[in-house]
C-alpha cells in the first residue's frame, strides 16, 4: 500500500494526471452535477455515511464520486464490469480524490470478485450498484452484513430484475431505489445515451459503414428504441425482434420491420441485443447467419449472446482482428461471425459509454436519491422502490435551467380546474 493513500488496487497510479484531465473535461459538460456538488459541499448531507459502490469507473463516474465525497461520504468503489474501467480515472480517484478504488481494465473474474469483496469488507451502510453484482454477493454470501445496510440504489433495469426476483423470495434485506424507473433518467440514459454510445462502440470496433447495412435490434425497450432510431438515422435498414406484442406493435408503427429472430438471423449484417435476458442470440441463430455478421451486446450482462454456443460451433477457431473484435470461424461451412467486446456491454467495453451530458442526469439522480435515502429510508420496508417523483422533477428542472430553457406554469384557475370534479 502506498503511504498516505487510501486502500486501492489500480493499474498504475502514475496515470492520475491523465485521469484528472479526463475528469475535468467531463465535469465541464455536467452542469447539474456542478450545482449539486456546490450544495453538497455546503450542506454535507452525507456526512459520516460509508458508501460501497460498484460502478463503471469512467470520467463521468468520477464526477459523481467527487460530488458524494464533497457531501461528506466515505467511499469504497469497485468496477461493475471488467472491461469498462478507465485506468487513468481509477488512478485519479485514488491520488486526487483519496477514494478507495479497486478496479483494473481487463481484470480476470477472480480479481473482479476480490474487488467486490474489498468494498464489502469496508462495511458500507449505503450501496450503489450497476447490475446488482455487489448487492447479490452481499446477500448471498454475507446475509448478516446485508441486514446492517440502511438502503441502496440500483442504476440499471437488468439489476432491478435481479433484485425483484430476490425480493419476491423475501431475501432482499433493505430498501433499494430502482433508478431505471425514473422517467428523466430513462429518457436521457437509455434512449439517447445508449442509442448513441452503442453505435459509437460498433463503429470504433469495426469501422463499418452503417448506411445500407441491415441492423437487427433485439428488444424494443428504451435502449432498443435508441439504438434502432440512431441506426436508422445513419442510413441502416433496421429490423426489430421482440417477445412483447405491445412493443412489437410500437416498433412496427414507428416504421421498423418486425420479425422473429429465427427469420432475421439469416438477413442481418449487424446484430445488437438489448433485452436484459439470456441466450437472445444462440446456436440456432449463429447457424443461420451470413458470413461476416457482427454481434454486439447492449444489455448489462454478457449472457445475451450465447458465448458457449459460439465456442462449440467454432471449435476454438477464433482470432483477434482488431481491438474488441474477435472472429469465430464456424466449423461447418467456414462462415465467420465477428463478436464485439467479448459479448460485454459494447458501449462501455469498446467505447466510452454515455456522453457526460447524459450522465449528468443519471448521476444527478444518484446523488439526490442517496441524499433522500439518508433521511427517509427508515420508513421504507425492504424491497425495490421507485425513486420519488419530486426528485425526478427537480432533476429535469435543473437540467432545463442549465440548458437555458424555461417552461410554462399552471395558473391558479388551471390548477383548480384539474383538481375539481366538473361537468
CATH C-level category of the largest domain: Alpha Beta
Could you tell me the mean pLDDT? 95
Rg, rounded, reads 22 Å
Report how far the terminal alpha carbons are from each other.
73 Å
Q: What share of the residues lie within helices? A: 40-55%
Write the topology of this structure.
Layout: E1 8-9, H1 16-28, H2 31-43, E2 50-55, H3 59-70, E3 74-79, H4 87-95, E4 100-102, H5 109-121, E5 126-129, H6 133-141, H7 143-146, E6 151-154, H8 157-168, E7 175-178, H9 183-206, E8 214-218, H10 222-233, E9 237-241, H11 245-253, E10 257-258, H12 261-264, E11 270-273, H13 283-288, E12 293-297, H14 307-314, E13 318-322, E14 325-329, E15 336-340, H15 346-349, H16 356-376, E16 383-385, H17 389-402, H18 412-419
Parallel strand pairs: 1-4, 2-3, 2-5, 3-4, 5-6, 6-7, 7-16, 8-9, 8-11, 9-10, 11-12, 12-15
Antiparallel strand pairs: 13-14, 14-15
Molecular structure report:
The chain is α/β, with parallel strands linked by helices and 423 residues long. It has two domains: 8-185 and 354-402, Rossmann fold, CATH 3.40.50.1480; 190-349, NAD(P)-binding Rossmann-like Domain (Rossmann fold, 3-Layer(aba) Sandwich), CATH 3.40.50.720. 46% of the residues lie in helices and 16% in strands. It is built from 18 helices and 16 strands. It has helices at 16-28, 31-43, 59-70, 87-95, 109-121, 133-141, 143-146, 157-168, 183-206, 222-233, 245-253, 261-264, 283-288, 307-314, 346-349, 356-376, 389-402, 412-419; strands spanning 8-9, 50-55, 74-79, 100-102, 126-129, 151-154, 175-178, 214-218, 237-241, 257-258, 270-273, 293-297, 318-322, 325-329, 336-340, 383-385. An eight-stranded parallel β-sheet has the order 1-4-3-2-5-6-7-16, with helices on both faces. The chain has an eight-stranded mixed β-sheet with strand order 10-9-8-11-12-15-14-13, with helices on both faces. β14 (325-329) and β15 form a beta hairpin. α3 (59-70) runs parallel beside α16 (356-376). The radius of gyration is 22 Å and the shape is globular. The mean pLDDT is 95.
Amino acid at each position: 500500500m502506498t503511504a498516505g493513500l487510501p486502500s486501492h488496487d489500480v493499474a498504475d497510479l502514475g496515470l492520475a494526471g491523465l485521469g484528472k484531465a479526463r475528469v475535468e473535461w467531463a465535469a465541464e459538460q455536467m452542469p447539474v452535477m456542478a450545482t449539486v456538488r456546490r450544495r453538497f459541499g455546503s450542506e454535507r448531507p452525507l456526512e459520516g455515511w460509508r458508501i460501497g459502490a460498484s460502478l463503471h469507473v469512467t470520467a463521468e463516474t468520477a464526477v459523481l464520486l467527487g460530488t458524494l465525497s464533497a457531501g461528506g461520504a466515505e467511499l469504497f468503489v469497485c468496477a461493475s464490469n471488467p472491461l469498462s474501467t478507465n485506468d487513468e480515472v481509477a488512478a485519479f480517484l485514488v491520488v486526487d480524490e483519496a477514494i478507495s478504488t479497486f478496479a483494473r481494465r481487463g481484470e480476470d473474474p477472480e480479481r473482479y470478485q476480490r474487488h467486490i469483496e474489498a468494498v464489502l469488507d469496508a462495511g458500507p451502510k449505503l450501496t450503489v450498484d450497476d447490475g446488482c453484482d455487489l448487492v447479490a454477493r452481499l446477500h448471498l454470501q454475507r446475509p448478516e452484513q446485508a441486514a446492517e445496510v440502511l438502503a441502496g440504489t440500483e442504476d440499471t433495469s437488468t439489476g432491478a430484475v435481479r433484485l425483484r426476483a430476490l425480493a419476491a423470495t423475501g431475501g432482499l434485506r433493505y430498501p433499494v431505489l430502482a433508478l431505471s424507473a425514473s422517467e428523466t433518467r430513462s429518457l436521457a440514459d437509455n434512449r439517447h445515451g445508449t442509442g448513441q454510445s452503442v453505435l459509437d462502440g460498433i463503429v470504433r470496433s469495426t469501422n463499418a459503414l452503417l448506411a445500407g447495412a441491415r441492423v437487427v435490434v433485439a428488444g424494443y425497450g428504451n435502449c432498443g428504441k435508441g439504438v434502432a432510431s440512431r441506426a436508422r438515422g445513419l442510413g441502416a435498414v433496421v429490423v426489430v425482434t421482440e417477445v412483447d406484442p405491445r412493443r412489437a406493435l410500437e416498433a412496427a408503427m414507428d416504421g421498423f420491420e418486425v420479425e422473429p429472430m429465427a427469420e432475421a438471423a439469416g438477413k442481418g449484417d449487424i446484430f445488437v441485443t438489448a433485452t436484459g435476458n439470456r441466450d437472445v442470440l444462440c446456436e440456432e441463430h449463429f447457424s443461420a447467419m451470413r458470413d461476416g455478421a457482427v454481434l454486439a451486446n447492449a444489455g448489462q450482462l454478457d449472457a445475451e449472446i450465447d458465448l458457449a454456443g459460439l465456442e462449440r460451433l467454432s471449435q476454438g477457431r477464433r482470432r483477434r482482428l482488431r481491438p474488441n473484435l474477435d472472429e469465430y470461424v464456424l466449423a461447418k461451412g467456414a462462415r465467420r461471425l465477428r463478436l464485439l467486446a467479448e459479448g460485454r456491454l459494447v458501449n462501455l467495453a469498446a467505447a466510452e459509454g454515455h456522453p457526460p451530458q447524459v450522465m449528468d442526469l443519471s448521476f444527478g439522480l444518484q446523488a439526490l436519491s442517496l441524499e433522500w435515502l439518508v433521511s427517509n429510508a427508515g420508513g421504507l420496508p425492504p424491497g425495490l422502490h421507485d425513486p420519488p417523483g419530486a426528485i425526478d422533477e427537480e432533476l429535469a428542472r435543473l437540467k432545463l435551467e442549465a440548458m437555458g430553457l424555461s417552461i410554462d406554469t399552471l395558473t391558479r384557475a388551471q390548477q383548480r380546474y384539474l383538481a375539481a370534479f366538473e361537468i
